[in-house]
Design brief:
Shape: rod-shaped
Helix content: 10-25%
Length: 426
């Protein structure tokens, strides 16, 4: 029996070998081993908490967490079934090198035992690891575009005034402000909306980085749109200059216009801005009085200036010294008027020619001439001053009214003796 098993042993072994070779040949012909490429395979990072739990953040550099091409050598039948999603690429943070790189491990979740080889175009993930930093920024809203003609932008408010950001220190240090912008082009009424919050550096360039986190991404914004109107500003004066000086009545800057803004119902009720006299007190002044007046202090409620450049006005009240002039008046130029019926009135005590001295500003006094001035004693006016309903006969001392302009006064009044008597019946 033993001889039968061992007889022709070499021939038998050769037959087995040839059978195996033939099997491989047949399989190679029907299911040949080939190399195929698979593109854009993402790499999953494992155990990233080892970085984040230590107060640091990481950033993948150069897109190294995506393998542009993975080459797999395997039978054709395997490639027929294998897809990109069956390829598993991982990088374990526990294997982080001193250069902040991690080796990539490749495998598949399908036919792994039939794969001859698997290689990628890149074999490491590159990281940038930094300390994590947080910062709170004051949140402001800005506007862009132009409102409709005749309108302007009023107050711009947000429903939150702070935004907190965190991320890599080098990135967070660049951020200096946070802002939400609203486009107001063509608007004539208030805007209430939500706006995206954007971050900016010191050069006003937007900072965008996927590793920055914000506690809020958008904010509610209200933009008040105000109507404009042009109105005059009127000034008045209080107080009297020092003795011997008078205000000329000229106020430089009075009546100039400013542009105000407000809601339409508030604007309609404003035709001018009146500055109270207390703002320009010229008491005891001996020369031109100049003051800086802040118009904003005297604006009606809910009215604003369209431009801050109009806020302060320089106002000058002209003040000049008084001048005097002496005039010679003829006695016959003084007469009695408005004598009540049934009475006679006469005056005495004046010389044939007497002098008066008038005082006022040069422009008011210079034109006065004696031949154009006459005096009167008005009985009715005198009775009103004395509280008399009917005259009583007798002698009275009364002042003569020379009908001088209101800006001109007498240095000393001129008085006469007035005699009133009842008319005798015929």
């Amino acid at each position: 029996m033993k001889n039968k098993l061992t007889k022709n042993m070499g021939l038998k072994l050769a037959s087995v070998f040839l059978a195996v070779v033939l099997w491989f040949v047949v399989n190679s012909v029907n299911d040949p081993t080939e190399s195929h490429s698979y593109n854009n395979i993402p790499v999953k990072l494992l155990n990233v908490e080892l970085i984040t739990d230590s107060g640091q953040v990481y950033e993948v550099l150069e897109g190294s967490d995506v393998i542009s091409r993975v080459s797999i050598r395997a039978p054709r039948s395997v490639h027929n079934e294998l897809k990109e999603e069956n390829i598993i690429a991982t990088a374990d943070v526990r294997e982080l090198s001193s250069l902040d790189t991690i080796s990539i491990k490749l495998s598949t979740n399908l036919y792994a035992s039939k794969i001859t080889s698997i290689t990628g175009s890149t074999d490491t993930v590159k990281l940038n690891i930094e300390d994590k930093r947080s910062k709170a920024l004051t949140l402001r809203a800005t506007t862009s575009g132009q409102v409709e003609d005749g309108y302007l932008i009023g107050e711009v408010t947000t429903d939150q005034n702070l935004v907190r950001i965190s991320g890599p220190q080098s990135v967070i240090d660049q951020v200096v402000r946070a802002s939400a912008d609203i486009n107001v082009s063509g608007m004539t009424s208030d805007i209430v909306t939500n706006a995206e919050i954007k971050l900016y550096d010191a050069e006003d360039q937007e900072v965008t980085n996927a590793n920055i986190t914000q506690n809020i991404k958008s904010v509610g914004v209200k933009v008040s749109i105000l109507q404009k109107a042009s109105v005059p500003v009127n000034f008045s004066v209080s107080g009297e200059p020092a003795p011997g000086f008078r205000a000329t009545g000229e106020i430089e800057g009075n009546g100039g216009t400013i542009v105000i803004a407000g809601k339409s119902n508030a604007i309609r009720g404003v035709s001018s801005i009146e500055i109270p006299a207390e703002a320009l007190n010229i008491a005891d002044q001996t020369e031109d009085y100049t003051a800086q007046i802040d118009i904003r202090e005297y604006l009606p409620d809910n009215i604003h200036l369209a431009s801050s450049e109009d806020a302060v006005r320089t106002i000058t009240v002209r003040i000049e010294p008084e001048v005097s002039k002496k005039l010679e008046i003829r006695e016959e130029k003084v007469r009695v008027v408005n004598v009540p019926e049934g009475y006679d009135a006469s005056i005495a005590g004046l010389e044939e020619s007497f002098g008066i001295e008038v005082i006022g500003l040069s422009k008011d006094v210079a034109g006065l001439q004696a031949n154009s001035i006459s005096g009167v004693v008005d009985i009715q006016k005198w009775m009103q001053q004395e509280g008399l309903e009917e005259p009583e006969p007798g002698y009275y001392t009364v002042e003569v009214d020379f009908g001088l302009p209101s800006e001109v006064t007498l240095l000393e009044p001129v008085t006469v003796s007035l005699h009133i008597a009842e008319k005798e019946e015929e």
